[in-house]
Amino acid sequence: xxxxxxxxxxxxxxxxxxxxxxxxxxxxxxxxxxxxxxxxxxxxxxxxxxxxxxxxxxxxxxxxxxxxxxxxxxxxxxxxxxxxxxxxxxxxxxxxxxxxxxxxxxxxxxxxxxxxxxxxxxxxxxxxxxxxxxxxxxxxxxxxxxxxxxxxxxxxxxxxxxxxxxxxxxxxxxxxxxxxxxxxxxxxxxxxxxxxxxxxxxxxxxxxxxxxxxxxxxxxxxxxxxxxxx
Amino acid sequence: xxxxxxxxxxxxxxxxxxxxxxxxxxxxxxxxxxxxxxxxxxxxxxxxxxxxxxxxxxxxxxxxxxxxxxxxxxxxxxxxxxxxxxxxxxxxxxxxxxxxxxxxxxxxxxxxxxxxxxxxxxxxxxxxxxxxxxxxxxxxxxxxxxxxxxxxxxxxxxxxxxxxxxxxxxxxxxxxxxxxxxxxxxxxxxxxxxxxxxxxxxxxxxxxxxxxxxxxxxxxxxxxxxxxxx
Lengths: 230, 230
Hints:
The structure is a homodimer. In chain A, helix 1 links the parallel strand 1 and strand 2. In chain A, 53% of the residues lie in helices and 9% in strands. Chain A has two domains: 77 residues, Glutaredoxin, CATH 3.40.30.10; 132 residues, Up-down Bundle (Glutathione S-transferase Yfyf (Class Pi), Chain A, domain 2). Chain A contains nine helices and four strands, in the order E-H-E-E-E-H-H-H-H-H-H-H-H. Chain A has a four-stranded mixed beta sheet, with helices on one face. Chain A is of the alpha+beta class. The interface between A and B is medium-sized, with 35 and 34 residues.
């Protein structure tokens, strides 16, 4: 039986954009596991397994429910030890937490400010109302204000990726010669932007853009199969 | 026979402050290997093994010379596989490169601007002349200009450590329950500042300060045995 991945969706239900759901999706593909996705708007997450989780991703593996992208990766690693490893050892597991913390603090916040209104605009009506109210309350500004002047913030966003850029001079993936979950942790937010916003983030000759391209090609082009926002 | 570690020294030759040498020293201690250090000022690095390396650390392991802190860690891991691991697997080895790249781009540069004149002031005379000339040429400003106004840059430096801070809510070390080389990669620059500058970097209740304290206690208090700059 296929694993079910509850996956955030836009108004166009085939547009799956959540950075955290992409981390889980890439982890499932990395393990070579069969899975189906269930497009879930923000306002219907509470219907998954009687309110099991306030957020997606959630996976249902034959009745075993797991939430949170990192916990899903840990679950898959332990439940399917004979499949390709997401961490390649205890050190990789622990250090991936640092990569996650870096992405959550150095990549997600500046990136959100570049695309937050674009996210809103591609949501279905009930989700638009929820998204605007919750984000404007959290940040104390309108979505329009937050996204305004994004061209001026683009250099700072690109500079925030400098740790990845420097590392890419040494090796093609955070996982070394091939990708590990630590790569998906950074791929997630860049794929989020690609799928939900037409705003161009990276210049073509950026090593980060080349790495992102390599990630889009992984697992039969799973990431690339999701069309970029136009 | 003990491994020899060529280690940058200040005017007081017992003051060993190089962030990169501290990474190598902690790696040697982590492996439980006997080693002796040779205090080496900047201007005498060229005398090590007939100009083997333009920088320290350099180790001499019974005639095998290795330079660069990360390469030294890799060498020790492979040469002493039965000793405690510095990486705990291939994933830990690869992801440590990301941690190193983060430290080199997000921690070292802002930290250097907080302590660069203090470094100069604790060097011996020939090293002071070399350090001033090389750094002023590299950065296009005087050491005094670079360090000026450091109080105003302290908040930005502390904010740059946010990835580590967030991770520490999950686990006590980058290596998980215990330290790995990835921890030493970040310990190095903070120990650099502690040993060469009296400028206070962290507030007491910062989780990063608690982690740094734990690192100072490792391996019989190796880091703490080096007195802080007064």
